[in-house]
Every structure is written in structure tokens, then in C-alpha cells.
What does this fold into?
Amino acid sequence: MLNDLSIKNFAIIDELRVSFNKGLNIISGETGAGKSIIIGAVNLLLGERAATEMIRTKADAATVEALFDISRNKALQKKISQMGFEAGNDLVIRRVVSRTGKNRALINGQMATLANLAAVSEFLINICGQHEHQMILNAENHIDILDDFGGCLPARAAYEESYNQFQQIKAQQDKLENQRLAREEKTELIRFQLKEIEDVAPQIAEDNSLIEEKKVLVNVQKLLAAAARAYDLLYGEASSVIEKLKEVQGQIKEIKKIDAKLTLSETDVENSFFTLQDAALSLRNYSKNLFFDPARLAAIEERLEMINRLKRKHGGSLESVLQKKQEMEKELLLVSNVAGELQKLSQEELIVKARMQQRALELSQLRAKAAAELKGAVDKEISALNMPHAALEVHFQRNAASASPETYNARGGDELEFYLTANIGEEPKALNKIASGGELSRIVLALKNVLSHAGSVETIVFDEVDSGIGGATAEIVGRKLKNVAAHHQVICITHLPQIACYGDSHLRVVKKVAGGRTTTEVDELDDEEKIEEISRMLGGVDLTEMTRDHAREMLAGAGLSCLESEEDKNAKKSAHR
It folds into this structure.
């Protein structure tokens, strides 16, 4: 329940504090006095976007603060706690709108976001004004109204969970299918290019190895000549190196016979002899294995041409060819994996779709039952609001049973709209096709009165819900507002005395000019002041005692029998004397 509202430097309001009570709180005042500005300030607390135009002229910032009693609202206390704010029996929401753009929102003194305010406001206040009329006219909102009335929201939440899973699967399928199609276009080319590489089957560094082998074959004669000459110099000729080394060995022996001081070892020379002898034998064996093979040379050149052709196509080196081969193999594997993923998703889709469809059918059945109950309850309310022949119809354009699951949306498989028959003999028509301002106001009030019994919001604000009505209908609307106030705190802005007289408390908004500035003030009226305000609403500027008596009668008829007419007071005084 909204206890106190403080407003500072907001629009034409300099500084204002308003206290609200239980039951029906009436707000009245001349047109332009600032009644709707108060509702605008409340909207700001509920998460509405702020603009610098809201700030009073010459002020740096506007501040709006409200104190709510949430001691009976355990669901809201839990919500606040889950959001990370301190939760208790009182809730304080504060908004500061600055010209510098440094706006702030606070919940129980802690910094909050607009999303936090919006989430909290769902439990706090429902504002029913001209916007509410537009909401009722918009067929898109009718299913939400029905679900709220019929207690369908838990079933709808369960359905929505399945629907979201179904949509996620469909999105994955679309993504994978697009990948598959994009890859399929390249698959044939990839397979062809991969086959080219696989047919050649190049090995790591094979091109370098073949180039070396080709170099040897091309230079066989030169290699044979060099090997033969080297062999002859070492071993083959009469004066070969080995023969001369033997002579060196003999000379060293002669020296050591005469002079033992020679440090040169015969073993060192002998080792050199064996090393050179092994080298000569290696050269001879090398020559034996050298021969010119034209067939092998042709094969090498053909092989190198195939490898070079692959290198020219795939990066210029054998390493890049082999890297490309790996990439193409992975690409083809991905195509295969996508097909497997799609098959897996198709099986999962069947399961999720069946669950979604079952939940949609259950939700649809609940809605059909709720539609009949809503019609009965609203018809009764509309009849009491001086529309005796009017009837509400919940028209289902389709339901989950007849619709394909692929056409379901986040709210189920049903599409519905509220229709109204205003007079006998007329076919039901959509609300936005027939409803006059007065009829629409009564329909909105009828729905609010019906929904108020099931709603979780403690405070309902009616912003000029009396648009387009008057006379006896206005009195009926007043009684209906009183009925709503039995279940909720109701704040009602009205111009009609027939409605104002039912208020448990009455606030009068007055616009004043002082010091060259316009300000708005709000006064809570006592019994006598209520008479004066109702009289003003009845008779305008020049009030007469007859008008005041009429106001007293209206207040008495609304239940305030303590208010006596001036004639009654005088009669009592005479009797006392």
C-alpha cells in the first residue's frame, strides 16, 4: 500500500508531500491544477524513462520518493531480497532526475536500475488511465488479461519453457542447415582437390629428396670420374698416397732406431694409413653403385612435375600442400558432423515439440474455462454499470488444438480477442470497432473490478476513469470503485461528484501563484471541506446552500450519514432551546 509520496521540483510542483490511506482515495481539483502530474511522478517510481523536461524551471534536479507498506506482501519481500536489496515491512523507492544526466534510482537506500523498479512495480501499483483504455482496445493484450484473471500464468510459464526450448532447437537447426548448405556448395570442389592430393600422395620433404636424386643421376659421369680419380690418387696408382705413406712409415722407423727422442708415433701414421685405405675402398664401392638409369630419371621428373603442380595450386610448398590436405579433411568431417547433429536435433525436436503441444493444449483448456468465467463476471459488472443489454464475448480465432505447433508463439497456440454486444440484436464486434468513450470507461472499470479479486497488486490508480460518463452511470461507477477499494487501496482522480462522494479520503489539488511562480498544493479534506469540494464539483464557482445540501445528500447516500444539512443543524438547535 502506498503510504506517502514526496515530490520536489517536478513539473510545476515545488515541494509536495501527500499521504494516502486505505480504501478509496479521491483526488479532485480544477483542470490543470496538477492532478495528472502526481500520477506522472508515481510512474517515474515505477521505472518510466525520465526526461529533463520533468524538472521544474530553474531547478537542478527533480526528486520523487514514495513509502510503501509491504508487510502483507510476502511475495514482494522475497522478490526484493532476491534482487539483492534489504527487505522488510516498508519499501522506499526514490528517483532523482538531474539536468546533468546523472539520474539515480534507489530501493531502500541502495542503488537500483530501471529494470529493478519495473520488476518491483508489478507487485505495487497498477495505473488505470487513458493508457489502460488503449491497452484494453489492443487485442494483443486480451490474452494476457484472460490469463491473469483465470490463474493461467503458471501453466503459461510451463508452456513458455517448452516453447523456448523448441525455438532454441529450431534456431540451432537453421544455423546448422545454413552451414551445411554453404559447405555443400564447396564439398564437390573440396573432394576433387583432396583426391588430387591423395592420388599423388606426397610425403614430407619428398620434393627435396627427389631433387637430390635427380641431381645425382644427371651427373653420373662426372661423379664416376671424380670417384675414380680420387681412388687412383689414394690407392690405385704406383705412386699413390697410400704407397707414399708406407714409405713415410719406413723413414720414421729408421729415425727412431737412431734417435728415440722423436715423439711421432708409428701408430699415428698407421692409423692414417688405415683411414685412407677405408676412404679408397668407400670410393671404389661408391663408383660401383653409380650408374645412369634413364627410366628412373624420367620417373623422378614426372613425380616432381605432379608435386610441383600441387605446390602451385596450394601455396607454393609441399608443406602448404600437406596442410591444405588436413584442412580439407577437417572440412569434409564437419559436413559429416553437421548431418549427424541435424539428425540428433530432429529427434530432440520431436520430444520437445510433443511436450510443448501438450502444455499448449492444457493451457488452452484453462483459457476456455476462464473465458466463460470472465464473460459471466464482466457481463454482471457491465449490467450494473447501466449497460443492461451489453455482453462480453471472448472470441477465439484459433486454439492450440486446431493450430500447428510450428505456428505457436510465446503465449501459446491460442489467438483471442474481446468482442462486445452493446445492444439487443447486434452482432458482437471487436471493442475498438464499437466502444464509445463512456462504454469503454465502464468496460475498463468492469474488468478492473473483476480482476481486483484475483490480483496481487495492492494499489490501483484510476486516472480520470470517468471519461465520457455522468449521471446515474457515474454513481454506479463510484459504487464499483468502492467495491474495488474493499480489496485494494484505490487512488482515483475524478471530476465527477457522483464518484468523489464515495471516497474514504479526499485530496484536493490546488494550483497557486506566489512570487511569480506557479505551484501545486494538495490538501486532505475534512468532512466540511468535502462538502465544499463536492459542491464545487456540482455547481462551479458560485456555491449556494442548495448546492451544499445536495453535496451532503450525496455524501450521506454514499455512507457518510454524519454529515448533516444546515436545515437539520438549525432544527436541532431549535429543539435544544
Notes: The CA atoms of residues 100 and 475 lie 48 Å apart. The mean pLDDT is 85. The two ends are 48 Å apart (CA to CA). DSSP finds 19 helices and 15 strands in the chain.
